[in-house]
Amino acid sequence: MRELIAVKGSLTAQLERFGNVEVTLLWQGMARPSADEALALGEDPRRWVWLREVILNCTAGQRIYARSVMPRLMPGPWASVTRLGAQPLGRLIFAAPDARRGPLAVARLQGEEPLAWRLYRYGEDAVPGAWARRSTLMAGRQSILVTEVFLAASCREVAEGELASR
Fold it and tell me: How many domains does the chain have?
């Protein structure tokens, strides 16, 4: 589990080591960011941003919820972010030669956070105890804030797999 949380490159590429990764698009469109998301991006919380929420499903059983928040206008190579649909964001981002991930902020969800409530609305009930991380993905002068929640079932499966391989 620690190995997945600490990934500095593409989480999608790391998950593909375990099997195929499919993306279930939960929601995408224009929205206002939460206050902490706006602060992390240096955006005005009253400004509209592009928001995308997905579940990454790995054939090996891992499930990761991902919430991506980006400035409304994404020029250049990331302009296609708004048309990704069921394609992984990581493939687009890390195709840029200068793509990098900012520092990771990691927390364990207690189940009462706004992020947890978002997951409950999507029918996820294994939220308490799940690990979450947030970082900013950057290339050139563009940035996308990505929050990922390693859903409890995937946490146990990955941890058991890591223990078995030692």
Answer: 1
Contact 54, 14 (CB under 8 A): no
On whether the CB atoms of residues 71 and 122 are closer than 8 A, the answer is: no
pTM for the structure as a whole: 0.86
- CA triplet 149, 69, 141: central angle to 5 degrees? 120
For the segment 48-62, what is each residue's pLDDT rounded down to a tens digit? 999 999 999 887 778
Where in the sequence is the domain holding 86, given as residue range(s)? 2-164
Q: Are 144 and 120 in contact (CB under 8 A)?
A: no
Contact criterion met (CB below 8 Å) for 23 and 55: yes
d(CA 49, CA 2): 31
The CA R_g of the chain, rounded to the nearest whole Å, is: 15
